[in-house]
Design goal:
The protein is mainly alpha-helical and 141 residues long. It is built from five helices and no strands. Helix 3 runs antiparallel to helix 5.
């Protein structure tokens, strides 16, 4: 059995097919090109994969902080609830004839500056999530 394997190896080493493929100039060029381009591609994929990891981490942290700011910019619903409870208590104590028009505190409305700040905050959150989505698609590709 071992003799048969040695004979096969000798035939393959002395074969003219292997010599014809590896000795001409274009074959050497393409073999070298394949080796160099493979190394370059592997290096580029590692760099891009690392960059996408950084984008994902940054987008996640930025989205979390941005969401906290968006929540903090929301009006306090307790103020509106308190005004409505006072209105209901007044109606209960004095009857429906004493009902006055609903007057909500000015804190329930938005000024134009608050509106634009919230619009920009939501827009930055959307772009951050879009960047994270693009990074995930790039990593899966």
């Amino acid at each position: 059995m071992i003799d048969l394997i040695h004979q096969i190896v000798e035939v393959l080493q002395t074969s003219t097919i292997a010599e014809a493929r590896g000795k001409d100039v274009p074959s050497k060029f393409w073999a070298a090109y394949k080796k160099v381009s493979g190394e370059y591609d592997d290096n580029m994929l590692e760099r891009c994969n690392g960059n996408m990891d950084i984008v994902l981490i940054f987008a996640g942290l930025f989205s979390a902080v941005n969401t906290a700011f968006i929540i903090a910019m929301q009006p306090n619903p307790v103020d509106t609830t308190n005004v409505l409870l006072v209105q209901l208590t007044t109606i209960y104590l004095h009857g429906s004839s004493a009902a006055q028009p609903l007057i909500l505190s000015p804190s329930t409305g938005y000024s134009s500056a608050d509106f634009w700040m919230q619009a920009l905050a939501y827009e930055s959150l959307a772009f951050s999530l879009l960047a994270a989505f693009g990074a995930v698609l790039g990593k899966q590709w």
